[in-house]
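Posting this for the archive.
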Amino acid sequence: MKRLFTLMAALPALCPVFAQWQQDIPEDVRRNYLESDRVLSEDACDWRKPVGDIFKPAVSHCSSAREAVLHIAAHMTELTGTYYSAERRRQDMNALEALAEKKISCTGQTILMVCAYRSVGIPARAVGIPTWNHVRGNHTWPEVWLDGKWQMIEFNEKEFNTGWVMENIGMLDPEHPWQRILVQHPEGGYIFPVGNMKQQPVRAIDETERYRALAAEWYAENGLPADRQRLMLDLHPRSDEAQPVQLVAADGTVLETQPLPTTRDDMRKFATFSLPREGRYYLVFPGNHFFPVQANSAPVQLLRLQKQQP
């Protein structure tokens, strides 16, 4: 009874604007993804007031939950000082650990974002995949309950259905058991692809087909014509700051300029280009370094290049 009183007392403390965002939320969504303090397998902590102290003022000017969701996502690093890093101490930091340590994994980013949304009255939960098809490694991201449905958003992104994630989902093998997209759910029959042995396994449901449909919509709007190939590029070691790389035709025409992933980007993020299937082209890196590229028959070509030592 004491716990129920705490939750009921905390939620009305939101200002009238935030309270308005809580209308028409299904009871199971409210219970599991707004009132719940735990996101995944992170250590329990009392995060609501310190997280709310950051994000409630940040969205006090927002006139709708949608505007608040996008504002929070786009300004996560600016508001918290946290950023993706392979040097993080542990994968599943709780919100207070993330705020203190700053260097966090995609799982830590997701936990912090979910807490941020819940702190302003917006239901949120975690989504994850054990491994991609084109590159090894898992990934985790948040989704929010908005306009009567769950919508995918990412750390420091300005729009829903983040392009590089949708593109990677489109390359999944639907028959591969490890390439399933799982959503945290207390009654699910799957185990979420991250864990803390000190806690019980995190249960999940399979939402692969919903996300494959989202990816198909993304490809329909952003996909390439038959005469182009998606070229995905990574350069190691990554730099701390974004550096531009150009796709250049043989006559010197610059076709595209894209930023290279940095040390603060997720390891599965690549610079992506639309490479013509006919002809030879060049990637031009900072310092006027050239690398020849040519399309092959595959839908996507991956290039992982290594910087040459001076």
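The two ends are 67 Å apart (CA to CA). Residues 39 and 164 are 24 Å apart (CA to CA).
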